[in-house]
Every structure is written in structure tokens, then in C-alpha cells.
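**User:**
Make up any protein.

**Assistant:**
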Amino acid sequence: MTLEEIQALWSKDAPVDRTELATEASRIPQLHSKYFKIFSTERLLYKKLEQQSKQLWKDLWDYYQGNFDYEELKERGWDQVNTRILKSDLSIHIDADQNWIDSNLKLAYQKEKVDFVESIVKSLNNRGFNINAAIQWEKFKVGI
């Protein structure tokens, strides 16, 4: 699920109909369940991407050290490193590697999705209090 799809879903589900507060209160558990499922799925995907990123970093470290044989390089579609790279300079080369950059961008995008859905879940946790406050305000306005 893309961030844009999640945002579109939330745009439809977020508004509270102030004329139907009881209905809105009863929707909270359904919405919470819906978004918590999305949150769990996206968070697990984030953890998976995080682990893949760590593995990629190690593989790139080995690659730039010249520890891959021809078959491993061919399998990954990587070219042979023709220069000797100092260990102190490895992080510079890894950080500039397009595979590492792509992995970090993918991880950042996934983190943004997780953070967004987490904020939705937190908002839903507070929605009951907000609806109750709105009910109390309506009672106050009519003098009850």
C-alpha cells in the first residue's frame, strides 16, 4: 500500500459528523482495527527493509574490500572494483553507492508510512475523548 493510498483512506475516514456523534463513537473500534492492521503490516515491512539494508551494507563493505568472486559479482550485476580502497574510506564509497542510496530511500519512504499510520492510530485512540467533549459541549449549549 502506498503512502498516497493510506492518505486517501484517512481523508475519507478522518472527518467526524458532529450531527451523529453516537454513530461516530461506534465507528472508533472499526477504524482503529482497520488502521492498526495497516500499521502492523507496514511496520513489519519496515523491519524487513531495515534488515535487508543492514545486509546490503555488509555486502557493499565486502564488495569494496574486493571479497566477492566473479560469480557473486555476476549474480548481483556489479562490476569488479579495480582500485584498492582504504578501510577508512569504505563508508564514503558505500554511502555514495547507488544500491545503498536506493535502499535508504526505500527505507525512509517506508518509515514515513509507518509514522503516518502510527499518528492515525494515536488520533483514533483520542477520538473517543474528543467525541465525549463535543457531546458535553452540546449539552452545555442547550442547558443540560
